[in-house]
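Request:
Um, any thoughts?
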Amino acid sequence: MSIYERAAKNFERALEFYKADLRALTPEQVMSNTMGKARRACDFTWEVVEVNENIRRRMLGEPPVEGTDEWTVCPDDQKDVEKLATALDEGGQKLLEAFRSLGDEKALQEFETPSGPRTPLEMLFFAYMHTMYHDAQVNLIQGLHGDDSMHWPM
């Protein structure tokens, strides 16, 4: 298996882990801002959906969706565990399709990003890291509510 396919498989796995952890939260936990200040799971999950979409667009040479300088807020019609899991999965699959459509050679061709030139392979690694970063926040919410179970599909 090539390094490009390994990177894609790792990102797929991160999506599976995140969805499993997200589904372990109650609706109240998804909407809760712990201690009255922390970001809600629905909001940072929606951020993952948006960031993955912008990575996909950049890989394909399309302009990113313009955001704001504020923290991402989940749209009202997506504030549901299953809707969030579906959006996360569908967006992640679109990103994987875009990455795989490039082929091995184009996966190493640089394109401009706000943080400088990057390759699609580097951006897929970033999507993986960003997804796992926010999955850790989901895990923390679980733990704060007494859930010490392993929800990842092994």
About this structure: The radius of gyration is 16 Å.
